Automatic annotation (TrEMBL):
Protein name, UniProt field: DUF1003 domain-containing protein
InterPro entries: DUF1003
Pfam families according to UniProt: DUF1003
PANTHER family (UniProt xref): INTEGRAL MEMBRANE PROTEIN-RELATED (PTHR41386), MEMBRANE PROTEIN (PTHR41386:SF1)
Length: 74
């Protein structure tokens, strides 16, 4: 009986190994894609922050100029 069951069990285990390998490969690809997307989003956020800091500096310069102009009038 065991001699008959052994090949069937082995084939079943081999099929499960193939399924597991495919699932692991799919998980790896999904994780890699997610990591690339996250890196892309980080780059976008960094660019946005850089632009915001530049704009803030421009606004501060305008305010400083206005304060100097007001101060020179008095």
């Amino acid at each position: 009986m065991a001699a008959i069951q052994a090949p069937v069990i082995m084939m079943s285990q081999n099929r499960q190994q193939v399924k597991d390998r495919l699932q692991a490969d799919n998980d790896y690809r999904v994780n890699l894609k997610a990591e690339l997307e996250i890196r892309h989003l980080h780059a976008k956020l960094d660019l946005l922050l850089t632009h915001q800091w530049q704009r803030l500096l421009e606004i501060q310069q305008v305010q400083t100029d206005l304060l100097e102009e007001i101060g020179s009038r008095q």
